[in-house]
Structure formats: structure tokens, C-alpha cells
Amino acid sequence: MLSKAKIKQIKSLEYKKFRDESGLFVAEGEKSVCEILQSNLEIDSLFCLSDALLYNDNKHNIKAEIISENEMKRISFLKTPPTAFVVAKIPDKKININDINNSLNIILDDIQDPGNLGTIIRLCDWFGIQNIICSHKTADCFSPKTVQATMGAICRVNVFYVQLNDFFDTLGKNINVYGTFLEGENIYSAKLSPQGLIIMGNEGKGISSETEKHVTQKLCIPCLSDNATKTESLNVSVAAAIVCSEFKRRNFV
Q: Residue ranges per domain, the chain?
């Protein structure tokens, strides 16, 4: 049976302040929980509605605590309580600049929506992009909403928070920095490198003027609709998927 203190601690993890203080985050649902149990993340606690789910059989040999549906409702952040719930430790990762200079990476400039961030993490996992560099004002990747949207990809993609101007100063001088702009070059005809940085901007404001200074090549996803004047822009996670797909397609086929 869950104590009131444990429930209070878990519910506090909705807020970044308490996630930072405790070094913990939560994940819900069978798929996300399974992904975390098979990862190298440290597990704090694991809760299930039934031992039939066999969550005892996992990489960490963590024994699940069987709780009632009512208890699951009390700790869950979802409208429909899940069958499994895990509290894990936030990993302490360091940026490898040499790796950044020699691979394709995503930079997020003040992305606000947790769902957008989670989706971008998930698509980076799909396209084999291992590093996402975020401005400090970007949504927290370990918020319950973001973790839920990643569907387990948070275990495999490295997400770092930096002061972007300082970060650019640490990079190699010849690194390609791509930015998405309405006035940019058509991405389908532009020359693209297999290594570099792809900047995706804020949902409403796009890439900031400060970050734009570091862009070496502006790209645009052309609007092919007859209603181009009415279709102003794409959702940032959709745009990120298109851009990542085109970069990877060039180096796959």
C-alpha cells in the first residue's frame, strides 16, 4: 500500500523544481515502462496493477510493487491511469563536443510545448540522431508530458540544456549550422551535409535573432498547397520530421 508521503513525493515530480531537487522523473504505460526497464537508467521504484505483467523480469531485477487501481489513479498524471508506472533517476550526461562535430544533431531554440519536444525526441530516435541541444528556455525533457510523448525514446536520445551562444563557441569552425526559415533555400534542392547542426525554432517566434547569427545555411520546406497564402507554417515537430527525413534520405539511398 502506498503511503501518503510516497504519493506526495511522486505527485511533486510534475514540477521541474522537485525533479531537479530529487533527481527523479516518472514514466507511465507499458511501452514506456518496458523501455526504461531495458535501459541503463537507474530505477527508484516500480508500480503495477498486476504481477501478470511480469515486470519482475527486467534488466535491473527490480521487483514491482503491486498497487490498486485507485492508488494508480492517485499517482498518475494521465486521464486514464496506466497499468504500469516507474520512477527513475535522471541521468547525468556530459556533452561530447567531438561527437557533436562529427555527427548530425538537433538544436531546439526555446521550444515551449512538452508534446512537441517529446515528439522530436521520438523522431530523433527513429532517424538515429543521438544528440539534442536545447536552450535553457526549452521545455523540460523529463516532465511527465514530454516523457509520455517520447514513448521510451528518452532512454536512447541524449538531451542537453545549454546557453546556446556559449555552446556555439565550443564547436569546430567549419561545422555546418542549418536553420529553418520561410525565406530559406528549398531543402529538396539544397546541398546538405551528413554532419552538422539543425536548428528548430520556437513555435510562435521561430529561431531567435541571437541564434540566427550562427546559421551558415538557411533552409525552407516549400509549401506545395494552392492555399499557400493561408497555410502560414508547419507545427515544429512536423517540420523537424520532414527536415530530419530529408537529411537522412540523402545519406541512405
A: 4-89, 97-250
| Pairwise CA distance, residues 150 & 111, whole Å | 15
Q: How far apart are CA 137 and CA 214, in angstroms?
A: 18
Residue pointed to by grid coordinates 523540460 = 140
Q: Are the CB atoms for 149 and 114 separated by under 8 Å?
A: yes
Q: How far apart are CA 193 and CA 202, in angstroms?
A: 24
Cβ(58)–Cβ(98) under 8 Å? no
Q: What is the grid cell recorded at 50?
A: 498486476
Please determine, for residue 127, whether its predicted confidence score (pLDDT) is greater than 80: yes
Residue 136 corresponds to which amino acid?
H
Average pLDDT over residues 45-69: 75
Q: What pTM was computed for the model?
A: 0.92
The domain made up of 4-89 has a fold known as: 60s Ribosomal Protein L30; Chain: A; (3.30.1330)
Helix (H) or strand (E) holding 182: strand 177-186
Which residue's entry shows cell 530529487? 22
Q: Is it the case that residue 58 has pLDDT exceeding 70?
A: no
Cβ pair 118, 239 in contact under 8 A: no
CATH match of 97-250 with 3.30.465.10: no
Q: Given the C-alpha cell 525554432, which residue does it identify?
A: 201
C-alpha to C-alpha distance for 160 and 158, rounded to whole angstroms: 7
CB-count burial class (<10 Å; 0-12, 13-18, 19+) for 205? exposed
Cell numbers that stand for 131 in this block: 544528440
Q: Which of 47-51, 147-151, 180-184 has the highest mean pLDDT?
A: 147-151
Cβ 143 vs Cβ 114: under 8 Å: yes
Closest to 104 measured CA to CA, from 249, 248, 250: 248
Rounded Cα gap, residues 61 and 151, in angstroms? 22
